[in-house]
Amino acid sequence: MSVVAETMPQAEDHTILIKAVKEGRILITNDKDFGELIFRRGHSHHGVLFLRLQDDSAANRVRVVKAVLDQYSDFLKMNFLVATEKQVRIRQSPVTADRNAKKNKTLPTNLE
User: Fold this and answer.
1) Contact indicator for 51, 61 with CB cutoff of 8 Å
2) Is 15 within 8 Å of 43 (Cβ atoms)?
């Protein structure tokens, strides 16, 4: 596990994505710019968990990430997951969607 805020505090988003790809890591973020890089600019990735939380406290972030990992870990690789306190939406990146010909899914979570 790597915490980018500590190891690369001034890094640009595209640099973070490149590093994650090189190291085969899944990115967990609340920065919507990563969606822009992946879906509009075509940057590659190994998987992204994007947190769209109403309660952005550390305790809630940990709770939601743990629940997503427990329930949806099989979906993380090569997908872009958007998690709220109530649901997880699985978006495939353009390359993955073309290759697999699957549609996006929204799945309820049991986070409460």
Assistant:
1) yes
2) no
Average pLDDT of the chain, as a whole number: 84
In angstroms, the CA 85 to CA 61 distance is: 9
* Range of lowest pLDDT (1-15, 33-47, 88-102): 88-102
| Per-residue pLDDT, 89 | 94
User: Shortest CA distance to 16 belongs to which of 105, 46, 24, 8?
Assistant: 8
According to DSSP, residue 26 is labeled P
Cα distance from N-terminal residue to C-terminal residue, the chain:
26
Which has the higher per-residue pLDDT, 2 or 40?
Answer: 40
Q: Can you read off the two tokens belonging to residue 112?
A: 């409460």
